[in-house]
């Protein structure tokens, strides 16, 4: 008994010491040092402009493998690229400006593109960046053994000559269409002609996979694959731990990462003297990882955060607040319908799908459940632009698109009932049963499906239609869609704001990760012609083709579009947004270009 | 030595040496007045004396009654939605005149809108303040409004208010209690059965059987139960049956450990030894002689486990692994309420009250039962 | 005894191995792809990544690879949650703050729980006892996310007593401690309640026992007997809940960590499972299981040490 007590006491002591020791470990010293530096800087400059934001946890900052939006918000600050994209106050629109490059790229045929680089570009540790650094970075990006998910930027987003073949290990690097003509000139050869905007976007902003990587750090963290004779060892995959911790994360952009405690906070300091630094106003950006929405709101109310997104649950409280601004999402959410279902053959009936399309009370969901979202009875979201991006003509504003968009929110109970009766008759006047899959662990998704269930059954009569709900984790749900083993399920389709045609690939018949069940030859044909074929350089016909494609979608209904997730955001009054509350694709409200008043 | 032998030989008592002394006398022995009282009857008698336990029993009965009949007490169903009446505060006829449950709430509005938008429903202006926006002050106000009037629902009464999509919280609360209680009780019954059998065998036989059985529980218990439950539900899909099964996965281990410990405590005791010497079989030793000692702990553990499982269920709901929509449960309601805790506290308050009261009642009730079964532990928790 | 411990340790190793193997198969049976659900990732990339981590091979083959690594204590690097970072570094990085918080919480929990428990037991069936018992059950039954959120709103937001979030200072300073108060409190409530309950039960038991009678016959006063015998004896079984509590806290609390933005171990498991980051999931499971097994062993051994009448491992 005494022994045991002693043991317990001993354990307590050990644990205490451990925790205290661990608390003041090596990491601690490093960060304190940095903090001291910060203090000094603060004292020198009179009132640095600090921007405090909330963020999500960061997995990796390696631009070659990162695939999350929250990480891209970090990378766009700390990494530079050839170009940058900013909000231009004069034209009240977007503007590409050269960053590491000297000017925008030149091309004669839309196939070969040449970038001239500035001569004094450096990483913050002084290592110079030139054309060779870029070429090396891209070689690593496409490396057949590293297998970076970002590699698609160079063969899928834009088709660089032999990039895919190199990635698959079929050709040598020399055959890839990327060359450094001299130390400061880059040449990129494409397989097919591409619109300028796609090329510009691929090489602009630090979050793109095309941003350069720091060669020494990248190689220092590299673990080579060990190949033994005859067998492949499971250990020693070729990979690098580049940018997985503060010391391993360099900076080539406007800001330098000076503090990073995973899942807690980050601090960025401005790199004055970098090419585009003058466009950005904050001298220091502080970021906290906050996962609870109510916590974010409290911090905002206390003035400890510059911006907060207002979800439906809080919207009632802030609905009349003048600071509310709305984002414009390029994603349309809805229910996939399995139009090829074997298990539930009535879903193959077009009338039923139409009934479900017109019978969903979209406003009940967007205004009732989400409060802030917009109803979308269409497939191509509102920010998508057609024609010259500089003019900013939006597809949904064109007359032709308007003509095919259903009226209002697309809710038409009479029409829906008419279609439903036909489908009901086709089902032999038997009760139709449909199971809807919704995403687990997402409260609003659950509510959305609950409302849909109730609205459908109320409209068509619960004696004729029975809807059941089933929860699934998002990844498993998408798996189920791909296997075609579902009736209906929640899902989203995003679009490339500048190239809506390209985004239509997801609906084509031979799209490899197809989650819907539409197979339409005319659609496939139009997709080919608008993205690689004859319609590429005919703006008018290209728009018409897009309208036609959407029309086909509305006829086939592989997905019932419901809402566009336009979030509401509030900014502190000290942040004077230069877009004047207007939401721009890619740059949003351009908060880092905003005028920041002293507190 | 010799003397004793001699003595033994000398003293020889024969039957005829004895004679009856009181053969003719009457024995004045009193007969028992009452009847013989059985084990359970005895327990019942003692239980009745425990006031707290009786009250708890009535509370449990009341909640069970409400769980069965509560959802039928008004015209709403648990899934009927009124999107235009979302987040209405509680309003009860009669009580509303006392200033509680009167369907009012405080909201923030622009001052200029008060007259036009909230004219009729306005009760009073609580606070006025300014929001600075682009160089000018925007006058705002916190006002108290009659939420029912505001949403054109003057003749409507939602006793406990409505949730985010305008469903009646009263109906959902009792339906949720029903589901939660069902999950809790079923899980406990199954766990108790498995745990008692497993623990008895393991504890009674000891040796290598115990070693093997304990390794099995170690493997199962070694995997963090939350993880196991999570994976199981992710695999099986949400629903009441998967939930019960998930709780059974590792839930019986605690019970079996307790039973095993009881067996270790009692199997070496003299009375067990005595009955074994007298030829009692293993089965009768286990179930007649040792296990009854554990009735108190079993009942305490089982009654405590019911709200324990309800609690686990609410934690899982917080993680988003709730029941299949639109079925409510206490956990689902709490998780939904927590998201809007500060704006609409009524959605958290009532489920939290039900779960606390259930827990309290089950505890006191369990203790009462245990005291009744084992009077030597009287009055302890 | 030593032989028994030896047996148990050997058994523990086997148990751990079994746990990890079962986990391996369970985790790999989960649907979904490690590459994520972004449909725009080309099939070539998806396939290549899956092949890189042998996810395209049949499960037994994958298990073979896994075993080879596992037996040489090579747990590998995380795939998704912190790509390329060795899994145990991830856990080690997150442990300190979790430990700090929980040890503070223990420092608060144990004495308070014991005190309340003693008071309740000594004042058994009085108003004080009923109040403490009711509060105890209230704190056990209301989930911690409700307390944490309410305390954050009032104590931090409304009344400005403490910061809303955990301070980012790396060392334990006064300001950092101040920001730790709310998380510590949120973590402590159910612990205090649990210990109070247990302590009250044990002490009631002790107060009724024969040795108390004996002590009093020896001439000790009620107070002396209670302090010297009853309370001391009722501490012993407390080990049964404090040991697992202490070891269990390493798992952290996801709820409290979420609300106060604490970079601890709490959410690691859920995140790694959701991201299908199997090496990390298995490492975290391994870690938790090890702790769980050690705590079971300690409790079992303590039975024997505390009460010599119990012979561990004895036959019927």
TrEMBL record, chain A:
Domain Solute-binding protein family per the UniProt entry, residue ranges: 95-511
CDD domains per the UniProt record, alphabetical: PBP2_OppA
Keyword field contains Disulfide bond: no
Signal peptide: 1-22
UniProt entry keywords in alphabetical sequence: Signal, Transport
InterPro entries given in the database record: Peptide/Ni-bd, SBP_5, SBP_5_CS, SBP_5_dom
Protein name per Swiss-Prot or TrEMBL: Peptide ABC transporter substrate-binding protein
Organism: Tissierella simiarum
UniProtKB/TrEMBL annotation, chain B:
Cross-referenced CDD domains: TM_PBP2
Pfam families (UniProt xref): BPD_transp_1, OppC_N
Localization: Cell membrane
Membrane topology label: Multi-pass membrane protein
Keyword Membrane: yes
UniProt keyword terms in alphabetical order: Membrane, Peptide transport, Protein transport, Transmembrane, Transmembrane helix, Transport
InterPro entries, sorted: BP-dependent_transpt_permease, MetI-like, OppC_N
Record-annotated ABC transmembrane type-1 domain positions: 177-366
Transmembrane parts of this sequence: 52-70, 181-206, 226-255, 290-310, 347-365
Assigned protein family: Belongs to the binding-protein-dependent transport system permease family. OppBC subfamily.
Protein name listed in UniProt: ABC transporter permease
Automatic annotation (TrEMBL), chain C:
Protein name as it appears in the record: ABC transporter permease
Main location: membrane
Record key words, sorted: Cell membrane, Membrane, Transmembrane, Transmembrane helix, Transport
Membrane topology listed for this record: Multi-pass membrane protein
Subcellular location(s) per record: Cell membrane
Domain of life: Bacteria
InterPro entries cross-referenced by the UniProt entry: BPD_transp_1_N, MetI-like
PANTHER family: INNER MEMBRANE ABC TRANSPORTER, OLIGOPEPTIDE TRANSPORT SYSTEM PERMEASE PROTEIN OPPB
Record-annotated ABC transmembrane type-1 domain positions: 95-303
Keyword Transmembrane helix attached: yes
Chain segments annotated as transmembrane: 9-30, 103-122, 134-157, 177-195, 238-260, 280-306
Family affiliation: Belongs to the binding-protein-dependent transport system permease family.
